[in-house]
Predict the structure of Pseudouridine synthase.
Amino acid sequence: MRLDKFLARTGFGTRREVKILVKSKAIQVNDVVVKDSSMHIKETTDQVSVYGEIVKYKEFIYLMLNKPVGVVSATEDSRDRTVIELLDVDVHHFEPYPVGRLDKDTVGLLLLTNDGALTHRLLSPNKDVPKVYFARVEGIVDEIDIQAFVDGVTLDDGYKTKPAILNILSKGEVSEIELSITEGKFHQVKRMFESVGKKVIYLKRLSMGALKLDESLMEGSYRELTEEELESIQ
């Protein structure tokens, strides 16, 4: 990899800014001062330092975000604040993006990464990766709804959903439930309940596959996945 590309990917600025660092004799490769920012290096074995600080190369980033209400699951949007705007600038050079999406008014677990292969595995319809949600629903959710979700319900556009597992936590004028689905249709959870005559008034994603939301994360906060979490979804 070209040195300037390597440093750009590790957050040391644009290629033009890297050239300025070279002119300042700030960069060394294997303890030798660099004279040409276009030189090629082996990113996994060569030792690169800037002002004496060793630069560690990392190709991918994996972030767990507790998405708050009011932001959209997109990399850019002309009207609304995006989840990317919640991230510190020091991770922007990785160009992370949300894996799937949560509605603007839905909170909870959202994975952001730049790993295309992992994204494909998690979102592929053939993989049937379960996603678990907690919801508050207007109306009494009962065993009839449980069976309807197991059988698959027909949405307003005529699409019949795959089997889903509905667990009732409490019944009342507002019921609390957990729902596990393996799809990600637009507004799917809300539309599923609308198909049985009920309305979701609060929705939070708790997990995606083996990855579970860290409940210690405040809404709007994020952290990198641990090695164990990453291995669980690979």
